[in-house]
């Protein structure tokens, strides 16, 4: 996978978080500099010291030790890192990326030079050690061990020097449980060694040690809850230790019966100790115990400044504008012309119909807009960050709507009905109609289109009748042996990486220009490469959501595959190479997944269990009259 990395003010967040958590909130434990937080820090520092020693051995021994010894020491180093990962990820996310990020070169999104950063760390070493050992890799292995050790030492220094609060300790534990479930057990950081289960167990043991200094205080406050938390840790670790293999592991049962109860017990324990929850706005709401609640993910965390003040009436206005052809240049096309609510806001076509008869066909498949507000970037090529920018781009695109905001604003200002709607939606600024307000209203409507109550969601929230055996097996395949979940991250099942949700991934798959495997060529669309201007991203496209995929055929950026079965076949065969397409920068592993016919059926069954359009597809009963646009006055909303 290739990541588009925005520059984040992580240090500023930690300072603000530490300050907020040490003021104005009553707690039975000291916040800033408490001995309990200091003990949690000491535990992580000890783990980093073990990591330093194992990496030093690995660097020194790379020139002469046998591959079995090198692999064993590498695995010991990874287990040591899992003892500190929860705090390193929170305090030093960029350094954590250097230690344990994907083995794919990256591009700094906010750098005008689009600087390419070479991959480094554990996963680069893993590719040197597995699946086969090459004697020529010894020098590179030593180099990577040295780089990883330097990054680990940097992380240790940052952790040692930064104030640590009780609130940060418990937030780190909360995030790590989610990281284990949605990344670790999906093989995100152990794609070749296959050690996700022992690493998850090591991580949970570290979390247990992290919160152990609070145990006496918790037992005094609530002995039953203290027993519940301790028992939840024990059961989760025992389940991981007792598993036969990563391929056979029941990830769904672990999620519902082990990880979720543990996360909720941890949440209640923090509340019982009166340690404050994260006060800042973030994608995973600070008030949500787990990732699996219907409103756990906050769409406003992906929105520009000011969007958080939008009243419900703004989304209502945006809905009218979404269905109104007033935004197109000739009044013939609305957003809903391609994003049809009856098709889960897709259009059922490989590519949209041309704006004009005989005109150019838009080059990319129409994606759903349900949950489009829950991602760190828009368009298949991630050329914009916010939905407001996407609306602007689509309206002005000469092949899509060929609109003119000045013209649209003039027409809207001439409609008393629309003026009243704008007044209600933007109460602080009177009834004025502006292009920014049009874009903001449409974006607010799209953010309101959330479908997070699919059969899968209901199942993980307790309705064990919501999914049958095939769907359950499909989830375990999706998150395990089929490797889908290492790119389509739960719970959104798109490419925005949890639990921080601050980065979006693009992938180079080698998508063909035709479904047939004879005479196929790579689709000519260069995707992200055309935007970034770097060869690394040629033919790279955003990882889209799998939610509602059963309703939004055809698939891929060019609509080349007509069914989910064809998509599964493409991935099972290793992508482009099976179509005779060989790209030096392909990020999808080219080896076969060796899925059986039943495996494929179960995967499709699970993807169908991600469907939810309830309450989202109603069209407006009528559109406001537009006196300056004959033929559009008060029309009943229809498929423009």
TrEMBL record:
Keywords: Heme, Iron, Metal-binding, Oxidoreductase, Peroxidase, Signal. The keyword Ribosomal protein does not apply. It is found in: Cell envelope. GO terms for cellular component: cell envelope. One of its GO terms (molecular function) is heme binding. Its EC number is 1.11.1.5. Residues 1-20 form the signal peptide. SUPFAM superfamilies: Cytochrome c. The keyword Oxidoreductase applies. Pfam families: CCP_MauG (PF03150). Residues 313-450, 469-611 form the Cytochrome c domain. This is Cytochrome c peroxidase. The lineage of its organism: Bacteria, Pseudomonadati, Gemmatimonadota, Longimicrobiia, Longimicrobiales.
